[in-house]
Structures are given as structure tokens and as C-alpha cells.
Amino acid sequence: MAKVACIGNKGDINESDLLEYMTGDHQTNTIGMYLEGVVEGKRFFKAASEASRKKPVVVIKAGRSEAGAAAVASHTGSLAGSDAVFNAVCRRAGLIRVQNSEAFFDALAAFEKLPLPRGNRMGSLSITGMGCVAATDAAEEYGIVLPPLKQETLERLGEVMPSWAPVRNPIDTWSAIEQHGSKKASSHIARCLMDQQDVDALLITFVLMPESMFDISEAFAEIFKQHPHKPVFASYYGGTAREISHIHDGFSALGVPCYPTPERAIAAFGRMVEYARFRGVIRG
């Protein structure tokens, strides 16, 4: 983190002061804000619009419900204001609004580590059918497209996937892993997906176990380096503390954020797509 500031009851400076400062701060690449109210609406909208044209701004706004607004008033004396109005401000100014702290930090991690996507199409692989189905449901929820596999990609996947295994995006990799091991199968399938032209991003989902403890950099570094404009997300289920630390450290060294479920990874990608559309990187 480059800067952290708490302004309490805003007796001196307010959120617009900080937003203006962080926008011009060269050490700050992404801005995260927790708000309970806005004291200078027009100034905040101007500052937010200018900030989001330069860097992502992720916002949690408390007091969405009637009870929450009452809690804000008793806590700081702030007026939470209309949630619908604040949503409209976020859309027009290009702010990325999230509803909870989990989504807040998930989105910040993605924006800080990854390039903005050039499209909303994602390739996904998982050792379990559960991971594939979870990714499919989350993709629909967040407006992410899972493009069909091209014939060339299918032929290359046949090098590790047995002929009897159904192959579609998301790819259930267990049969390939049974025959070739987790490292070889996962890296080959990841390469095939990244090489497909209409795949804009990649999600790799593991079920953590001793077989997952391979050298992540050795398996994936060269693949990711060949596609620097494609964001990559990792996710996992289960695992011991040692296994979780291994996968986080391994992917972090490659600049890849790691999430404890595929749904959270796809939600973070969805927020990147939202911002990329605002910036004109993605059209339509």
C-alpha cells in the first residue's frame, strides 16, 4: 500500500480532498475508498470523474439499507444519502462500487496486479466439475463470456486429454491430470487456452492436495510472459496452511492474484471488465 488515510468525522478534510490528492500521487496506482456519506456532492463527482480517467477507484458505500443509514448517522453523524443516487454517481463517474469488504480487497488485488482486459472472454480450467460449474454460473452473473474452444485448440488439448473425456470451456482437467500429473496437464491446458485468440483472460482453479505442490513458476511463467496483455486469475478449494501458502506465494511471484473460490476470481475479473469498458479499452 502506498498511502492509507482515515478521516473520521471529517472535521478538517473530507473524501474529496483525499481523492484529489491520491489522483495526483504517482505512487498510487489504484484507489480504494470506504464511505459512509459524501459532504460535497458536486466536488466529489468532479474529483471522482477525474480520478477514474487516470486510475481505478473501488468504493464501498455503507448505509445502503434504512437500518444501515441509521447506523451511519449514530456512528459519525453523517447522512448516508440516497443509495440509488450514489449508484448513479458511480456509473457516470466510472467508480467501481462493491458491496462488501471481501469484494473490495478482491477487486483491488486484481487492479493492482493485472493489465486491464481487452475483452470479457475467459478461458477456465479446473480439476473438478464443481469448479467448472461454479465458474460457469459466476461468469453468467458478472457478464463474462466463456468462448467455445476452436478446432486447433481441441487438437492440441488431445495431447493430454483422453479421447473419451468431454472437452469444453471451462475444462475439467482431472482425466488429464490422472494420466500426466498436475504440473504437465495444467500447464499444457493453460497454454492452449491462452494461445486461443478470442480468450482475453484465464482462470486456473485447483483443489489443493500434495499433488498441487509443484513449482508454479516453472509450470506457468513462460506461458504468462508470452501473453502479457491477458490477465490471469488463480483460485482454489481446500488445502492445508502450507498448501495455501504455496499457491499464494507461487502465483504472487508471477503477478497473479489468488482467490479462495473461482466465484471471487470471476467477480474481480467482472469489475475489471466494467472499468475497462468505462476507459474505452473494451467497446460494446
Summarize the structure in short.
By secondary structure, the protein is α/β, with parallel strands linked by helices. Helix content is 49%, strand content 12%.
List keywords for this structure.
2 domains, alpha/beta, three-stranded parallel sheet, Rossmann fold, elongated, about 280 residues, 12 helices
Structural description of this entry:
This protein has 284 residues and is an alpha/beta fold. The chain has two domains: 15-99, Rossmann fold (3-Layer(aba) Sandwich), CATH 3.40.50.261; 122-279, Succinyl-CoA synthetase domains (Rossmann fold, 3-Layer(aba) Sandwich), CATH 3.40.50.261. The protein has helices at 15-24, 41-52, 66-76, 83-93, 101-113, 129-141, 151-157, 174-180, 182-195, 216-225, 241-252, 262-279, and strands at 31-35, 57-61, 96-98, 122-126, 171-172, 201-207, 232-237, 258-259. The strands form two sheets. The chain has a five-stranded parallel sheet with strand order 5-4-6-7-8, sandwiched between helices. The protein has a three-stranded parallel sheet with strand order 1-2-3, sandwiched between helices. The protein is elongated and about 65 Å long. The mean pLDDT is 93.
